[in-house]
Amino acid sequence: METFVVLAVLALVVGLAIRSLVKDRKQGGGCDGDCSHCKGCH
What we know:
This protein is mainly alpha-helical. The protein is built from 2 helices and no strands. The longest helix has 25 residues, at 2-26. The protein is elongated, with a radius of gyration of 16 Å.
């Protein structure tokens, strides 16, 4: 039972992280890997 609870919490955290990344991407935020675009690497 404890393993199920830990897995459920972990799945929730991962799901929220992925949702946040997708939301940032749709809004034009986040890193797209093109450093010349945002000058974030230097």
